[in-house]
Amino acid sequence: MSGGWREDILFKLKRRTNEQVSPFQNLILIQTKLIERNSILEEENTSLSTLAENLKLENRQLEASIHSRAAVSQAADSVTVNELHQKLFRLQEELTEMHRRKGENAQQVIDLSAALKLSDKEISTKNLAIESLEAEMMILKQDLTNFQSSLQELESTNQLLKDEYQALQLALTTAETSLSSVKRENDTLVVQLMALKAKDADRMNLENDLFMLKKQQLMQLELAEAASEFRHIPETANQGITTFRTVTGVTVPTKAAFKFEAHEGEVMCVQWDFGGRYFATAGTDRKIKVWEIERLQQAECKAILTGSNAAVMGVDFDLNGTMVLGASNDYATRVWTIDDCRLRHTLTGHSNKVLSAKFFGDATRVVSGSHDRTLKIWDLRSKACISTKFAGSSCNDVVTTEMSVISGHFDKKVRFWDIRSSSEPLHEVIVGGKVTSLDLTKDKNYLGICSRDDKLSIVDLRTNGVVGTYSGEEFHVGCDWSRISFSPDGQYISAGTGEGNLYVWNVCTGVVEKVLRGHSSGIYAVSWHPTGLNILSVDKSKTCYVWSDM
Q1: Which three-class secondary structure state does DSSP give residue 515?
Q2: Domain extents for the chain?
Q3: Which strands sit side by side in the sheet containing 279-283, from one edge to the other?
């Protein structure tokens, strides 16, 4: 191969020499002939000039001789004078012809000089082209050398890759063999693990049953002691609240069981489903996540619901726990099914952020409250808005009963709407600050209101009057969408502060039952488990806390 490319380059150089020299050979021959012809014409011109000078000299001599002869003898023969005149005339004609030929020769010399200059210019152009081609040839030679070295490197690299491929092929074969054995071992371990988990689940269920039985027995003893001692609850500003339906197992949490990072941005809301199996969180990352708590040790994400184009401000479950409702800042309300994580309905019609949305009891209708100062009632069967309520103020939260809607607004008013009547509210309740949140007790008899004057109020829906007001020395509502939550039995109400503290009030006595500290930023929402065993709270720094006393 090394001898072949040298012969190829030599052959190309010879061919280039032949191609570049042969066009100039004719020009060189023509130029040589022109130079020789020019020399001949110059010699002829010189000889003619000499002959003309000789003729002039001879003419002068003849004229002198004529004049001398005329002076000596004026009676000369007329025949001789005529001959001399004729000879003089012939010489003048010959002199004129010589001058004409001299001019023609001079013009030929000029033409040949011009042609010579053009030939010189063409030769210079060709020489420049030859020089550029030689420089290009040198560059091509250098490129050829580089390509040859690159080719050698590629060949060596290719050989190395082939060796590595063979080694990897052997390693892959070995790994596949190992994988097969590991899979068989893993299948065996999975079967063993499932059996152990089943045993562990049975054991945990037995322990839970024993714990609940013991707790019920303890509560019955306490109730018996209370009945025997005829304890009396002191009268306070909250004496309008009389009795609540007892829910076994409701306790005020005393510590954080665990915490976890729920979203990629701020967590705006949290809500348990009605069965207490799942809870949902939503935030500024435009996602709704459905979680399940395992043994009060960790939360496992069961579903991620996407489709919102802005932050999700509120979530709600239907009674069966199969659908999730989300209120979004992109002016829309959406409904997902949990099992397949599919977006089922997108309800659009508001002209501003939707801050809250709730299902009605049959889960075929939805109410949404927006910053555009309206409430809209939607029929999920027809996917259309069936009623619009003009509140006159931005709506921050809504709750529903079977045939009514209660909305809290920026203008410090809580409005009560009958969905079967006109668009005017039935009545209103005014509090001391912008309403941030509403919550109903499980029996739908009492309404909790959180407002920006750092107070919580409770309204008896049977009398439509405020029966209790709650506050604390360090209790400060941190935002316009701070969500509160009743305990399942209605005996406690909880709310978060802008400093990251979770307050729990005793509804009957009006005193702060517990302040739970742990959040590093403001708490946006809380939700009490339907069995009363724990409380969820979410904050601005992406964190969700699970509070419990177990």
Answers
A1: strand
A2: 2-69+81-162, 255-548
A3: 267-272, 279-283, 288-294, 298-305
3-state helix, strand, coil in the chain (%, to 5): 40, 30, 30
Q: Residue 81, Cβ neighbours under 10 Å: how many?
A: 13
- Residue 362 structure tokens: 């049959």
Report the distance separating Cα 126 and Cα 16, nearest Å.
Answer: 13
- Which tokens is 162 given? 């082939």
Token output for 342: 């599919």
Q: Which of 225-239, 248-262, 375-389 has the highest mean pLDDT?
A: 375-389
For 230-348, where are the alpha helices, taking DSSP H only? Answer: none
Q: Which residues pair with 516 in a beta bridge?
A: 502
How many Å apart are CA 55 and CA 329, to the nearest integer? 122
Backbone dihedral angles phi then psi of residue 431, each to the nearest 5 degrees: -115, -175
pLDDT digits (tens, 9 = 90+) for 182-204: 888 888 888 887 788 677 666 76
- What CATH number is given for 2-69+81-162 in this structure? 1.10.287
In the block, which residue shows the tokens 């479950």?
317
- Cα–Cα–Cα angle for 48, 49, 50, rounded to 5 degrees: 90
pTM for this one?
A: 0.57
* Alpha-carbon distances, residue 328 vs 105, 311, 354, 355, 481 (angstroms): 105, 6, 5, 7, 13
CATH of region 255-548? 2.130.10.10
- Angle between the N-to-C axes of helices 78-229 and 2-72, in degrees from 0 to 180, rounded to the nearest 10: 150
> What six digits make up the tokens of 90?
């012939």
The tokens for 154 are 């590629």
Share of the chain above pLDDT 70, in %: 88
Nearest CA among 430, 423, 437 for reference residue 525: 437
Alpha carbons 535 and 537: distance in angstroms, whole number: 7
d(CA 314, CA 327): 5
Sign of the four-CA dihedral 240, 246, 247, 249: positive
Question: What are 203-239's pLDDT values in tens digits?
Answer: 766 666 666 676 666 777 767 666 655 433 334 344 4
**Residue 101: pLDDT band by 50, 70, 90 thresholds?**
confident
- Residue 367 vs residues 283, 290, 395: alpha-carbon distances, Å: 20, 22, 12
Residue type at position 312 = V
Q: Which two tokens stand for residue 549?
A: 């006393």
